[in-house]
Design brief:
binds NADP nicotinamide-adenine-dinucleotide phosphate; TIM Barrel
Length: 315
């Protein structure tokens, strides 16, 4: 598996990462999928404190217990900042929380559940409109000084939100995790349709992909297989979904790999050096997907897929 050097860090990360959101509830199969990922050269594992309400991190800790020495060879990332309704007390609303106390307490919980004493990367999960920049800076500094977290990033943040935060932090933001796939490609689309009358689409991401490229912030693509939505029976797909899966099947046939590998190769072909965070719990699918590392789509193939995902023609 080819790797990216993560700018501003000493980390060398596999181009494809493994997301652990679905580990809770699929524990046996999921742990086999994690092992398949390691065997394929994936060294990057993405978590969040809310996945399975913490259960996914606990399940993953079994891999570390079973494999002494593995911790130093893999990169562990987790996220905090989302708080569910009724936590910690009944009646509390769903909310985002980037307060100093919550960030520090969250990391302690994450480390305990994972059974490790440090995270390689901590991401703020979703932008909190009540963010106090000085609090985040103080929390990150305390975590870095104590050795609990080595590097920091964000998730679901647009360019302006990152710029605002970055202006107050004493360390760089190294990653931004965003939903991107052949099906959900609005962040790419907005650069294409900018200032066009058709389709009538407002600016949505504020040049987020371009901002991240410019500032060497790695874009991690979550739900890179569109959460499995294109794997449904074809008769249940929308006309656009049907057009998309047909083109993907054609190109997969040409490259002798699976449709899922082509979906991942489409993200890897983007020059931003995106890192797809795959979420399958099926060990065979992990192996199929990793074949994407050897596929380089041509410009024409990339655009065939993009065009099939839209009900309109390129301007
Ligand atoms: N930052 C955020 O806000 C955020 C949000 C969501 C997720 N994430 C991260 O992104 C990771 C990946 O998310 P994801 O799981 O949605 O990604 P995904 O890789 O797009 O989707 C995986 C899901 O699709 C199913 N699937 C894939 N191909 C299929 C096919 N041909 N037929 C039927 N089902 C198919 C998988 O089922 P099988 O298991 O059966 O293969 C699995 O349930 C998560 O683990 C998490 O780390 C981050």
């Amino acid at each position: 598996m080819k790797q990216y050097c993560l700018t501003s860090t000493d980390l060398s990360v596999s181009r494809i990462a493994f997301g652990c959101m679905r580990l809770a509830g699929k524990e046996q199969e999921g742990l086999r999928a994690v092992q398949a990922a390691i065997n394929c050269g994936i060294n990057f594992f993405d978590h969040a404190d809310i996945y399975g309400a913490g259960r996914s991190e606990e399940v993953f800790s079994r891999i570390l217990i079973r494999n002494p020495g593995l911790r130093g060879k893999i990169i562990l990332q987790s996220k905090c900042g989302i708080r569910f309704a009724d936590t910690p007390q009944f009646g509390m609303p769903p909310r985002f929380d980037f307060s100093y106390d919550h960030i520090l307490a969250s990391v302690d919980g994450i480390l305990k559940r994972l059974g490790t004493d440090y995270l390689d990367i901590l991401l703020l999960h979703r932008p909190d409109p009540l963010v106090e920049l000085e609090e985040v800076a103080a929390a990150f500094l305390a975590l870095q000084k104590s050795g609990k977290v080595r590097h920091f990033g964000v998730s679901n943040h647009n360019a302006s939100q990152i710029a605002l935060l970055a202006g107050s932090l004493p360390m760089p933001i190294v990653a931004n995790q965003l939903e991107v796939s052949v099906e959900h490609n609005q962040l790419i689309e907005e650069g294409i349709i900018f200032n066009q009358n058709t389709p009538d689409s407002p600016v949505r991401g504020n040049g987020t992909l371009e901002y991240c490229r410019l500032h060497h912030i790695m874009i991690q693509a979550w739900s890179p297989l569109a959460g499995g939505r294109l794997g449904r029976p074809v008769e249940t797909l929308s006309p656009t979904g049907y057009a998309l899966i047909s083109v993907l099947q054609d190109i997969a046939h040409d490259h002798q790999v699976s449709v899922e590998a082509i979906m991942i190769a489409w993200l890897l072909r983007h020059p931003a050096h995106m890192q797809p965070i795959i979420g399958t719990m099926n060990p065979e699918r992990v192996i199929d997907i990793c074949a994407a590392d050897e596929v380089k789509l041509s410009r024409e193939e990339w655009y065939r897929i993009y065009n099939a995902s839209k009900p309109y023609r390129l301007p």
